[in-house]
Amino acid sequence: MRISLIQQEYKGNKKDTLNHTISMIEKSKGELVILQELHEYEYFCKSEDTKYFDYAESFEEDVKFWANVSKKKNIVLITSLFEKVMDGIYYNTAVVFDKGKIAGKYRKTHIPDDPGFYEKFYFTPGDEIEPIYTSIGKLGVLVCWDQWYPEAARVMALKGAEILIYPTAIGWLMCPEDRVDELCEKENTKKEKEKMLNAWISVQRGHAVANGVYVIAVNRVGKEKDESGVLGGIEFWGNSFIFGPQGEEIVRGGMKEDIIEAEINLKKAKGIRKIWPFFRDRRIKLYECIKNRYC
Amino acid sequence: MRISLIQQEYKGNKKDTLNHTISMIEKSKGELVILQELHEYEYFCKSEDTKYFDYAESFEEDVKFWANVSKKKNIVLITSLFEKVMDGIYYNTAVVFDKGKIAGKYRKTHIPDDPGFYEKFYFTPGDEIEPIYTSIGKLGVLVCWDQWYPEAARVMALKGAEILIYPTAIGWLMCPEDRVDELCEKENTKKEKEKMLNAWISVQRGHAVANGVYVIAVNRVGKEKDESGVLGGIEFWGNSFIFGPQGEEIVRGGMKEDIIEAEINLKKAKGIRKIWPFFRDRRIKLYECIKNRYC
């Protein structure tokens, strides 16, 4: 099965961004095409501003739009949209389309809040971790901050997910133009940047090995200023990847716009658990404390 | 705090092996010294033979012996011994000594069984995952096969472990001298070997990132034949390592005998969770299915 990861920049407004995304999808060759987190807009969680809630008003329209893209191209398409359910309840939602039909959606369950990533202001946490059934397999769609949680990966795998897929928006904090604050300076050394990028890769690669599944992340690229002027902004680090069920790197992108593509073989992944039988030996009685905050 | 990992070969019998281990410990400079899994003997689980149970008869003597080593050198020492509790109940047990006193023990909870690693024949699984309190910190001692389980790492971290430590015996299957069987041939390509080694590293590195803790593995080196002649034997891959709380490689050994040493800073690890606040956002209600075999 061929998979395409669309790694792109924000183009200054929704219309230009959508047009660009569509042109990339047209060029892609995958049966499964995956877009990055909140791909219709800038990563607006860089600051807390009520104006950005307007972006969620078009959720229903957006769903129709992407269903149509999926139908025309005859693909399974994973999108990441800002969903309004009612006044005061908004989700960070991945909607999965299967050749024009909605196969399912996943509402981000782990919501971050740290400088430049003020997502707790915008998003209600989703309350379900369930794989989504499609014509090409059971997809364990999770979103960004979820990727740091072995529990989320394991729950998906225990529920039968054959691939873990993380639309993502992650990068390094940029220093504000007029000053260098302590946090951005500390984070902007080359060594620190590499450490953060490698940590992000490592933890997800670990999920692949522990669960014997493919793991895919699709991240944005480009520098986006913090319009509020409080922080400098974020330089998104791209590096979208596919790791195999033994943690082997299958493909990894750079820091530029790119359609990152590879073939994967879900049957092969199923075979791995016969010779690496981690699931056989889980000591479930000893994991009780995992459902506690701390023990 | 300085840590020493004693990565060694089996020297043909217990006496020579112990003498060699002692000479390596004497040369080491760590306050915490860690020995590999079942370091007194060959890795005898390469085949199933009742004669090896005799090795566990000296457990009480062994404990006294290592307590004395720990006292003389004035160190925290992590050993890995074959423990007999009664006829029919034997454990793969890490005993931790703190300057001559027993600080605690951990009985391996996840027991493997695959070609060349027939541990289910020898070891009853331990029934507790608890950190061990020592004068230098709370140690999350786990053993070998445990390292593939994110749950074991998480339980230790939730219970306050500051470092995860895995005495280990892992390597590649060797082909028998008189023939090349399918499994050993498949596993003996350079690419396959690298994939397995990297998977082993990746999954543990993932535990470091997910839990914001140091992760240490101490593995044996050398080729050990399967005396039963069924399999070729195992080439242990060494590569003992320390990863930092952001998954950064601090030190890693090669495939030869070595005292692998580094300084670590437990205070630094504690700071990481302030800016990478994964523990804050765990969605404990959504992890219910982890305590099931499958969902």
Task: For this entry, give a set of tags.
6-stranded mixed sheet; alpha/beta; homodimer; globular; Nitrilase/N-carbamoyl-D-aminoacid amidohydrolase; 295 residues
Task: Describe the secondary structure blueprint for this structure.
Two copies of one chain form a homodimer.
Chain A: E1 2-7, H1 14-27, E2 32-35, H2 59-73, E3 76-86, E4 89-98, E5 101-107, H3 119-122, E6 132-134, E7 137-141, H4 150-158, E8 163-168, E9 171-174, H5 182-187, H6 190-211, E10 214-219, E11 221-225, E12 233-237, E13 241-243, E14 249-252, E15 258-263, H7 266-275
Parallel strand pairs in A: 1-2, 2-3, 7-8, 8-10
Antiparallel strand pairs in A: 1-15, 3-4, 4-5, 6-7, 9-12, 10-13, 11-12, 13-14
How would you characterize this protein structure?
In chain A, strands 5-4-3-2-1-15 form a 6-stranded mixed beta sheet. In chain A, strands 6-7-8-10-13-14 form a 6-stranded mixed beta sheet, covered by helices on one side. A 3-stranded antiparallel beta sheet of chain A has the order 9-12-11. In chain A, α4 (150-158) packs parallel to α6. The first copy, chain A, is 27% helix and 29% strand. Chain A has 295 residues and is of the alpha/beta class. Chains A and B meet through α4 and α6 of A and α3 and α5 of B.
